[in-house]
Amino acid sequence: MGTQHVHAGWDAQDPHGSIVPPIHASTAYAHATHADLRDLFARRREGFAYARSGNPTTRVLEERVAALEGGAAALAVASGQAATTIALCALLAPGTHLVASERLYGGTTEFLTDTLADLGVEITTVDPWDLTAWERAIRPETRAVLVESLANPGCEAVDLDAISAIAHARDVAVVVDSTLATPALYRPGDHGADVVVHSATKYLSGHGAAMAGVIVDTGRFDPRRCPERWPRLTEASARFGVVFADERGPGCTPLLAYARAKYVTDFGATLPAASAHAVLQGIETLDLRMARISATAADLADWLGSQAQVARVNHPSAPGRPDARIIARDFPRGTAGVFSIDLSGGEAAAEAFCDALELCTIAVNIGDVRTLACHPATTTHSHLPPARRAVCGAGDGTVRLSIGLEDVEDLRADLARGLAAASGISALAA
Ligand SMILES: Cc1ncc(COP(=O)(O)O)c(C=O)c1O
């Protein structure tokens, strides 16, 4: 695994022998003859024409992430949000239906319930642990189910093998946002996922310096298995003059060929080469970072659970979690560094806690080498109605932590400072 993090997708065989994948800062790509370029547009050959739909640096990133996920191919895009949007748009035509876990990143929930609904796709949300709810929610028009392998912010795991079996029995594609888990800890394709999406802005990049997203096709999804359910892939495209179901080969699958040709190009959700380069550098140390961050987070979660101001710790190791069996079975390498605590003093305590932190930074990102803290109910999940926020694990007193690479003792001291500030508020509230 660590070897692939460093080598997959790049063999130093560029003309100069550069051992680091270079940044291809070119908008357009030259062709020896007019016929070469014409054939590229006619999809008769592979290559680069104009960087909106890809460039050689993003191609290395695609090959590396596909290899890490054990997938058939990947598509790199401008952000994690673009990855989710494009993956779902490619699977869900107007009039179709999506079943989604009710525990998702707030931005994803907003996209589903607002923009995707505008596009004529119906959505049903379910408790991710209630397998009969997944069964019941799937209808003839359902084309995809969506879950997070570890949910943001409560770090809950799902029984993906069971959900995949339910979905596949009805020819429904399984889409998994695996941003928090990363392929260093968990590969959704090994548990039945058809499509994996990542916000590479987080752990893959790892240093809080680039926005990026990746869609991985694990190779299971075959639109020809049930052609009438996927006409946009199995019938000839008037616009592109091909049947996308035929577009299969190294680095190319029907779904990703369609997503790249149509949505990356039309939405302009291009990943800049410099960002792809930053993510590639981040991935080189992913394995090490995830091991260290997972261990530090588990240590701090355990300690926070014994603190008077903390009503509840939402970390996989916390006692009484409904996903304990799944975590023990599927996450032997750890569960990353994002988890949340519910402070008994509510929002005021959360505010005092955050403001007292000196080492941890108040910021809404996750997956950075620096530890970050935020109050999801008034930030990442603030556009959701309160009941929905609570279901997502973003209560009034919830503070989300994304643990970084600092020394655990320094972090414990800083969190203790936050708790001391919050304890005054709890006392006042009580
Ligand atoms: C689980 C998850 N998926 C997707 C996204 C969206 O990613 P991006 O901010 O790169 O667009 C986020 C952002 O926080 C996230 O936490």
Describe this structure in words.
- One of its GO terms (cellular component) is cytoplasm.
- With 430 residues, the chain is an alpha/beta fold.
- It has 2 domains: 2-281, 3-Layer(aba) Sandwich (Aspartate Aminotransferase, domain 2), CATH 3.40.640.10; 287-429, Aspartate Aminotransferase, domain 1 (Alpha-Beta Complex).
- The chain is built from 16 helices and 12 strands.
- α3 runs parallel beside α11 (273-284), α4 (80-91) crosses α10 and α14 (346-356) packs antiparallel against α16 (408-429).
- It starts with a helix and ends with a helix.
- Pyridoxal-5'-phosphate (PLP) is lined by residues 79-81, 84, 105, 107-108, 148, 152, 177, 179-180, 199, 201, 211, 213, 366.
- Pyridoxal-5'-phosphate binds at residues 79-81, 84, 105, 107-108, 148, 152, 177, 179-180, 199, 201, 211, 213, 366.
